[in-house]
C-alpha cells in the first residue's frame, strides 16, 4: 500500500481520533477534578479538521490572549502536542489550585506559571495514556513549555507543523463544566510516520 | 495566515498574530501602492503539497511583488520591512526554529528580487500584530504587554 498523507489519514479516520480525544479528555477531566477536588463533567469532544490557514482563528479572535502548553513526545512515536485554554479557563484552574478567590485575574506570577505547567503535565499525561492504552505503545512526554500570547501566534506553531506535510490541521475541542468552566483545545502533531504507526497499532490499514 | 493583499491609499493593511510566521511589507512611496504578505514556511520546493502560493516565502513574496506592479508600483522604488519569526515555545527542537528559517528565506527572496530590506523586527519569543499604512509606509508592530512601536 502506498504512503498516505496526513490529510488522507485525517479524512479517513476521524472516528479513531474522536476516540482518542474522548478517552484523553475523559482522563484529563478526571485527573483535574481529582487534583482540585471538584466535580467536573465533560461534553463530548469535538474533532475538527480544517485548512491550516484557518487554525489561527479556530479558538476565537486571532488576537485573543490564550495560554498554550506544549510538550514534545518521543519513544514509539515522535512529535509534539499542544493544549490551549482561554485566559478565563486558565485563571479558574489556577485560582482553584492556589485556593484563591475565583474572580482573581491578575497577571500570572512565577508560582502560577508553575501551576500552569503542572496542569499541562496532567493534561498531556491524560491524552498520552489514552493513546498508549489504545495502541500499547510507549510514549513519553517532555517537560511542558508555556506561552501566553495571541491565539494566532501560538497556533502558528501547529499550523506550520501541519502545513509542512499537508493542507489540513486537526484539533480536538473539549468543554468541561459544573464546578468549573473550562474550554480546552488539544492538538497532536505527529512527526514522520508516527501517525501511520498509531493507526497500524490500532489494527487499521495504512 | 498564508495570505497576501495589496492596496492603494487610503486603505491600510494589517495581519494579526504573527508567531513563527513572517509578515512582509512592501511599499512604493510615490504611487502609495502597499502590500502585505503573511507567510508560514520558507520554501515551496521542499514540500510535496504546495498549492497555496501565499503559504511560502519564495512564492508569496514573488506574487506580492507581481500584484503590486500590476497596481502601478515601480519596482525600483519599492522598499521592504519584515516582522515575526518568533520562537513561541522554548522547546529545543530543530523543527521549532522555523521562525528563523522563515526570516532567512524572506530576506533571501527579497535580495533575489532586488528589493531593499530597510527594517526588520524578527525572532525573540512573542507574537506580533502588524499594521502597514499606505499614507506614509509606516509599519506599526503591536505585541501583548508592549507599547506599539514602528520600525
Describe it for me?
Chain A contains 6 helices and 8 strands, in the order H-H-E-E-E-E-H-H-E-E-H-E-E-H. Chain A is an alpha+beta fold. In chain A, strand 7 (168-178) and strand 8 (182-190) form a beta hairpin. Chain A has one domain: CheC-like (Chemotaxis protein chec, 3-Layer(aba) Sandwich). In chain A, helix 2 (14-36) packs across helix 4. Helices cover 43% and strands 28% of the residues of chain A. In chain A, strands 1, 2, 3, 4, 5, 6, 7 and 8 form an 8-stranded antiparallel beta sheet that branches. Chain B is α+β, with helices and mostly antiparallel strands. Chain B has helices at 57-70, 98-113, and strands at residues 3-8, 13-18, 22-28, 33-39, 79-84, 117-122, 128-132, 139-142, 149-150. In chain B, the strands form 2 sheets. Chain B has a 5-stranded mixed beta sheet, with helices on one face. In chain B, strands 2-7-8-9 form a 4-stranded antiparallel beta sheet, with no helix packed on it. In chain B, helix 1 packs across helix 2. The mean pLDDT of chain B is 94. Classes of the chains: A alpha+beta (206), B alpha+beta (151). The A-B interface holds A 5, 7, 52-53, 55-56, 61-63, 65, 68, 70-72, 80, 142, 145-157, 159-161, 163-167, 191 and B 1-3, 16-21, 40-41, 47-49, 51-52, 55, 86, 88-91, 93, 95-96, 98, 125-129, 144. Chain A: One of its GO terms (biological process) is chemotaxis. Chain A: GO terms for molecular function: hydrolase activity. Chain A: It holds the Pfam family CheC.
